[in-house]
Amino acid sequence: xxxxxxxxxxxxxxxxxxxxxxxxxxxxxxxxxxxxxxxxxxxxxxxxxxxxxxxxxxxxxxxxxxxxxxxxxxxxxxxxxxxxxxxxxxxxxxxxxxxxxxxxxxxxxxxxxxxxxxxxxxxxxxxxxxxxxxxxxxxxxxxxxxxxxxxxxxxxxxxxxxxxxxxxxxxxxxxxxxxxxxxxxxxxxxxxxxxxxxxxxxxxxxxxxxxxxxxxxxxxxxxxxxxxxxxxxxxxxxxxxxxxxxxxxxxxxxxxxxxxxxxxxxxxxxxxxxxxxxxxxxxxxxxxxxxxxxxxxxxxxxxxxxxxxxxxxxxxxxxxxxxxxxxxxxxxxxxxxxxxxxxxxxxxxxxxxxxxxxxxxxxxxxxxxxxxxxxxxxxxxxxxxxxxxxxxxxxxxxxxxxxxxxxxxxxxxxxxxxxxxxxxxxxxxxxxxx
Length: 434
Known about the structure:
Number of strands: 19
InterPro entries: AAA+_ATPase, ABC_transporter-like_ATP-bd, ABC_transpr_TagH-like, Bact_Polysacc_Export_ATP-bd, P-loop_NTPase, Wzt_C
CATH class of the domain at 273-402: Mainly Beta
Keywords: ATP-binding, Nucleotide-binding, Transport
Strand content: 25-35%
GO molecular function: ATP binding
Largest sheet: 6 strands, mixed
CATH architecture of the domain at 273-402: Distorted Sandwich
Radius of gyration: 26 Å
Helix content: 10-25%
Protein name: ABC transporter ATP-binding protein
Family: Belongs to the ABC transporter superfamily.
């Protein structure tokens, strides 16, 4: 039996959440009064702290988490947002101290948690390869040995001696991932970094990760994309609200996770609007999709979507600047992460989108929605065509498609049988020859 290379016992991580008290206006008398109260507390209990602070509460990101990972295992950590996945990897990486429990790790650990951490904007790409490699634990000899491969993988040869502050965000993350991906550890911890760059580079990253996993290294991988998880991993750990829900083979664990998502009360199933960001909390310095409205062709809200319906998805977004020829992306995928449809304004040059500073909206129109009944994941994005993402959220909300049986056959198309209810006609000639 393989020796455990990672052992986690009764792990817990607690955070103190502070709630800001609403004080829209503070007068001089309030400052003096609070100072007198603080002095009184010092005289009574020897400290200026309040005995009770209702503005603080405890939050356990992880609680009583225990598991073992054997040498050579490829483990996928799955769970909804806020389940504790990233917290777990930060503790395993020794970035964060646990509140309770203990971990025992045997072997050299490398972490791909936030690509680009440690890059210096004033240094060139060449200099940052050495700097970032050293920060990630690579020696100078090791960096030199991998230097040409890193540069070729990142596809930044022409800009190698340019300060990275002049790189596009796509070039920046490509170089950062290339450095991190060429580490040679015994244990590799990966947190949702395969979403960097364009689609071609994402596939390249996935291929690199497959090389790592096939080389016998121990890999712990976090992703919301179930297809990537199943492609890379053999063991699954399902976290739910900081607790372990299930550990087992990746197929059974991912199936349980998907079923739980179907059973849970998902918002927007019968709503004509999927809210992504509140207008009042938009950061004016960033691109951001605000909402996706589901409408009839006449512009009225569409409360329910049926197979073969005509439907408009109205994407409302914020742009911090005027931008000519921006690109808006709308995506539909299964709960398992398989992309069914990806629509972009880029190919249709007659519908060029010029972003205006402020709030914008575009309509993605389906004359006939070829989806069987079931739940699907809506994704949205903003981009500069052929260059880089400005914003993306590929789990923005859930679209529920209701069944419609126009053939009156009693067999309305359901996603459990097939996804695309494509209509077709038949030409039948039963007899050929005797």
